[in-house]
Every structure is written in C-alpha cells, then in structure tokens.
Write a structure and sequence with these properties.
This protein has 15 helices and 2 strands. A two-stranded parallel sheet has the order 1-2. 62% of the residues lie in helices and 1% in strands. The longest helix has 38 residues. Helix 3 crosses helix 7 and helix 8 runs antiparallel to helix 9. The chain is an all-alpha fold.
Amino acid sequence: AAALAYQQFIAPWEDRERLTWSTYPQAHLYLIPYFFLAYLVRRQGTHLVRLLLLPTVVAMSLRCTFRYKIDDPRMAWYEWDRGLLAFFIIAKSIDFAFAKDGRLKLGEKQLRRSHEFSDTRRRGSEQATALLGRNPAARFLPRCIFDALEVGLTLRGIGWDFGRYTPVPPSTRPPERRAYIRATAKNILYKHLLIDLIDTVTKSLPGITTTSGTIYLQDVASPQRYVISTAIHLGHGLLIFSGVALVYDCMSLVGVIFFNQSPTWWPPIHGDLFQARALHDFWAKSWHQSLRYTFLTLGGFLGQWLAGGLGMVFGCFLASGLFHELALVVAGKELDVKVFAFFLIQAIGIVLEKAFKALTGRKVGGFLGLAWTATFVLGFGQICTDAWFSRGIGGAISIPPFLSIIRLLVLPLIRTAVTYSRLYIV
C-alpha cells in the first residue's frame, strides 16, 4: 500500500503522461494553493490554517510535477528546471507554514487581519502607493493578490525578516533608469553569447550525448585529459552561473520597464567569482544567492538545531545536493551519490576554514586562499559535473537552436571564410 501511494506522487518514468501545451496548466496547478499559502503568511492568525494547508501544497507539487514528462532527452535541462521549481515551492511552503508570526517586511510591526478589506482603486493611485508601499504594481492589483505575489516570488528575502542577513553585492550598474536598461540589455546579450558558445563547444566534444558522456576524454593522455576536464567543468559552471544571472536580468528589465520599478530594487544576484579568496566567500558571496534560504529551510536550520553551526553548514550542503538531485529525477535520471559527495566535500572545506581561523586567528585568504578555493571548486567540483554529464546533461539543450547566434550566424560565417581562404590559396 505504501509503495502504491508513493507511486501516486512519484510516478515511474514509464507511467508518466506526455507534457504538452494543453497539459502545461495541470502540471503547474500546485501554484494556486502555494500562492494562497503566501497570502496567508501575510495575515494575522493564520498559523494553524497554514500548517493544515502545507500537506496539500507538498502533495500537489509532487503529483503535478511527476505526473508529466517530456520524452525528448534533449529537453533534460527544462525537465530539471521543472523539478527545481517544484522543490523550491515545497521549501517556501514549509517556511510559510512554520513561520508562527507570518512574514514581515523590515520595519513592519504587525500583519494585517484577514478580514480587513481595502479598495485601493477608490483611494487613488497616490494613496494606494502610500498604503501598499512604493511598488507601482500595488496601484492596479488587488491587495490580496499583490501580497501573495510579493512574498511568494521573493527569492533572497531582501527587505524581509527572513532575508536580513543575506549578503547583497554592491551594484555595478548605473542607478539611472535608461542607463540601467541599456547596461542590463548589453549584459543579457553578453551572457546569452557566453552560454551559447559554451553550449556549442561542449556538444562538439566526442562522447557527449543526450543520454551519456564524460568530461574525461579517454583518448587523451592523463595530464592533458585533466586540463581539458577542468576547462569543461569551468565552462559548465559558468554556463549555470550565467544562466541564473541572465534570467534574473530579464526579470529586472520586466520590473523596471513594465512596472516602473526602481533599478535599486534589483541589486546584483551574485558577486565576482574570481574575487573569492576562501571557500566560504565563494559560496556565501560570489556564487548566486537565489537559493540561499531554500537550503537553510530544507536542511540548514535542522542541522543547526542538531549540531549548532557545524550542523548548519553540513545541513545546507546536504540540502543542496538533495535539491539538485531530486529535481533531476523529474527528468527521468537516477540519483548519483557522487553529487552528494561533492556537496559534502564543500561543507568539509568550510569547516576546515573555520577551524583554521579558530586556531590561528586569521581568515583564509590571499593567494593560498585562492588556491584552496580553486582546489575545492575546480578540482573536487569535477566529480559533480562528470556525474551530470554521465546522465546526458552535457548533451541536453540549454540554448534552443533557433536562438543560437553561434550556430545560426557565427559558425556559417567561419565555414564560409575558411572555404574562401582555401580557394584563394589554391
């Protein structure tokens, strides 16, 4: 009975229905109770209701996500994203359900009561803006919907009680609206070309397919093999890093252009990768922070309760490994223990850094800190990338062919130039 119940929520790959445009709404139906939960977390006296609603959101997230599949193995990236979204929603729902006093913005003293209604349209745009904050979306959205979207779509929690300790990198773009739009548009184009280039080069490597592959080229001698594997791993990391930043930049343009939001509401989502001089700084500041609170919710807080700061570190990285791997199951892939090993090795590295500081009074840094960080990220990180490539992620589509500037424009121009140069030489 337990096995049958499990299969109702985590259906085997062969039993899943094909995901189409007509079934797409059903595959994301769990967002409705999720945003209702987000609305409740912004109202007084809803703690018990939120706890009772949590199992429904979790069950629907699993059922809707694992009920459908995309048969084409080239779409594994997008299936992976569907899984990441589902488990992100589950993590947010757990946080909303167990936040006894709800979720407050910094500076707020108390939440509204659920039975208080206010017609913002009648108050006029200026009064509505003053009442609901400076977000222009508050002028035309009903209060309940605005509140649900505002907290439900928040990733890092900047400006909220749960994100008060989130590090925010200094902005590198102009605060003036038009200048910000131009700078962000250029950045989007640059990141798109970088992802496109890495994706094109990766798929040209021997043995990289949509079902298997490895970053270790067997026909190459050992020293050169590991140089190439390091380059592939670095490229794959930059692809993920740039992909997250590209999506964030696109969302920021939507907010600034269509909702007239201030560019200051969109601080950088990551720091400078190459400025990290300690493993802790790399993961806490340089890498993107969009899932920081997700990992705290899924494992960090439990680890802290069990074993203090040491438990929090291991809990966060174990949660990160589970988050990435369970989401990949949505794409029909099996779990790989090597991915968990990679994330736990990162936790060990950070604990060793804390031990070094406790013993010497000095923080890991400088050139040796850079070498230390590179060893864990570029060295041990290859365990994770190879595990993903072995299950076809390296051969899956990250840039749709009709959006690939490299394949549609650059490569044909190179081939034409090479052809003409040969003719000229002859």
